[in-house]
Amino acid sequence: MASPRLKSSQLRERSLLLTDRKITGMQSAPGIIDMRDAFFSALFDLARRDTNVVFLTADMGAYSLGKFKAELPGQYINIGIAEQNMASVAAGLSLSGKKVFIYAIAPFVTQRCYEQIKVDISGMNLPVTVVGIGGGISYNSDGLSHHATQDIAVMRALPNFAIYSPSDAISAAASAVLSYHGNAPSYVRLDKGTYAPLYRSNERFSAGVTELKKGNDILIISTGPITHNAMKVSIALEKSGLRAGVADLYRIKPLNGTAILKIIKSYRRIATLEEHSSIGGIGSAISELLTDNAIAEAPLKRLALRDCTCDGYGDREWMLAQHGLDINSLANTVITFIKGAK
Q1: What angle in degrees, to the nearest 10, is found between the helix axes of 169-180 and 35-49?
Q2: What's domain 11-190's architecture?
């Protein structure tokens, strides 16, 4: 029997009600493992308990998917390099009562098949989870075709969609569980590689945002793995006598405005940090939140990829530095902002 579908307002209410639930995606703490493997291990545990979970891939793999494919072959389908078809197949399976997850490199699974996602999934409010790997410029040297620098912007514009952007393996595992329980479309923006844990394995993921570090001079609201840079910047600012707080926005949509505004009240200034275009990402989302609530007391600085094509070739850190998103550049920008905003 198909899962009941919820309206956007019901999705928002249900997501916020999850505050009192303990969200754990894995049977044991994932530790420092690849974010993909943390997510897919959590999804495997869910699929083992629920035969309606079906995983579709556009010929894209990951180490932990080997177990999924071997032990649950009836719930694993390689569609091939056909993302548009994959989105429509997912919609059909969902209408048959399946809980579908579709997977490919982020720009391919969001923008190449955007019309199919808009019409077949978002338009019918189907519980399909779009899983994109390689947020931002993590596929650095593969060039423009593989860079996911507008994905948050385009997915934010779709009605009914929730957007999760984990920053470590623990939040990645939780994203699998949150999207599974969502009963509405969702997009999970994953990174590849390992990151030191920002969360404990018993963390409750439901508010959509967590204040990882407290301060008072400025609050840096970040999302995804670049949150680790935000933490490093906050340490660098201490040398200048500045106390920077860091908040991790792991659920970009629906935005928990109440929780974010409560955190913001303790700060004099705000900065947003993201590995995404300066247009349409969390900088835009926070700006909209402040404007809609007539909050003018705290000046806002958006730190993001410039509105241009990332056409240089080098490793990820080099490319981030070209956009002023390395630790030193970020610290200097924040210091200048604080001095100018007094």
Answers
A1: 30
A2: 3-Layer(aba) Sandwich (3.40)
Q: Which CATH number does 210-340 carry?
A: 3.40.50.920
Strands of the sheet containing 99-105, edge to edge, are: 76-78, 53-57, 99-105, 128-133, 186-190, 162-164, 251-253
What order of strands is seen across the sheet that includes strand 300-305? 210-213, 244-248, 218-222, 270-277, 300-305
Q: What pTM value is reported for the model?
A: 0.89
Give 68-98 pLDDT, tens digit per residue. 999 999 999 999 999 999 999 999 999 999 9
DSSP string, 166-179: -SSHHHHHHHHHHH
Shared fold status for 11-190 and 210-340:
yes
Both structure tokens of 177? 């569980």
Domain edges within the chain: 11-190, 210-340
Q: Which two tokens stand for residue 273?
A: 């940090």
The 10s digit of each residue's pLDDT in 252-278 is 999 999 999 999 999 999 999 999 999
How far is 307 from 295, CA to CA, in rounded Å?
26
